[in-house]
Amino acid sequence: MKGLILVTGSEGLVGSRFVELSELKDSLHLPKEVELDITDKSELKAVFRSFDFRAVVHFAAFTDVAKAEEERGDKYGDCWQVNVEGTRNLVEAVKPHKARIHFIQISTDMVFSGSTWDPGAYKEDHSPEKDSNKVSWYGFTKAEAERIVQSTLGASATVLRIIYPVRAKFDKKLDYIRKPLQLYDEGKLYPMFTDQQISISFVDEVSLALDKIIIEGYRGIFHAASRDTTTPHKLLSFCLEKTRGIKNAVKPTTLKEFLQKTEASAQRYPKFGGLRVEETEQKLGMRFSTWKQIVEKLVNQGLG
Ligand SMILES: NC(=O)c1ccc[n+]([C@@H]2O[C@H](COP(=O)([O-])OP(=O)(O)OC[C@H]3O[C@@H](n4cnc5c(N)ncnc54)[C@H](OP(=O)(O)O)[C@@H]3O)[C@@H](O)[C@H]2O)c1
């Protein structure tokens, strides 16, 4: 297949592993943020003038959920500017070439509320939340970005949602498993929720799904996540057992109790989340691991 693949956010937690593992390594074009700021339309235009892309994989995002919350409602804030306007700029640059360029938006479970009135685990065709008061500000900006992709590029584009991406090693950023493991080693691990429903995404499987999507040209909405859901308490207990040989080391608590004591912003974090993957598995012809299998694979890769 001819043409380059533009990868935004290629130095981040997820994008950098895709770059390591992809079968399409030789076709990837990987500008750093200093070379291509997606909020700068003129930089984007210049890049699209200079290169002949056949696909764009859009990982770049403002991903600090707590910081994003401090910007709630602020459309001049970094979170809105990067996640919404940055995506809009990219999509506008792709639009005239949409028959040739396959645009792939990397998105998140946080576009859904994870609430009692609209609980997960969510299927691929579930509608992202439209009310900003029902989701985190980060989640709302990513939901807006999905809507921009769909309304501008329609059926020519793809959305791939992931949830709590984990990998065995990455020095630049801790993830949903490596952070609590580090806190445990420092004697600072907080009690973990027994009543929150989550799934996790093995970044290696996200990369495999992406390769299939690009190579086969699959369009639509896909999920890359563990085949089953768990709770943070079960997940961390299992990780500590597998990596440290310690059982029953995680103190339990409930999200319900935590939310009674905490400020309003936390109320919008997903309680009954998770992504379902059956349709994606069928369309891509692949099988995702269960959360326990993911932990075992991470341990085999040296998760410490
Ligand atoms: N991490 C999660 O828990 C999670 C969960 C679900 C979905 N996702 C989605 O997965 C994708 C990748 O997430 P991640 O965890 O890999 O993110 P990350 O580690 O925070 O990396 C984000 C990347 O985006 C780049 N970036 C930020 N602003 C930019 C701009 N204005 N122009 C160009 N590049 C910019 C960053 O560059 P610098 O490093 O130079 O700033 C970095 O390379 C995101 O779309 C995110 O929404 C993440």
TrEMBL record:
This is dTDP-4-dehydrorhamnose reductase. One of its GO terms (molecular function) is dTDP-4-dehydrorhamnose reductase activity. GO terms for biological process: dTDP-rhamnose biosynthetic process. Its EC number is 1.1.1.133. Pathway: Carbohydrate biosynthesis; dTDP-L-rhamnose biosynthesis. Keywords: NADP, Oxidoreductase. It comes from Candidatus Woesebacteria bacterium GW2011_GWA1_39_8. Residues 5-301 form the RmlD-like substrate binding domain. SUPFAM superfamilies: NAD(P)-binding Rossmann-fold domains. Gene3D superfamilies: NAD(P)-binding Rossmann-like Domain, UDP-galactose 4-epimerase, domain 1. Catalyzes the reduction of dTDP-6-deoxy-L-lyxo-4-hexulose to yield dTDP-L-rhamnose. It is an enzyme of class 1 (oxidoreductase). It comes from the Bacteria. Belongs to the dTDP-4-dehydrorhamnose reductase family.
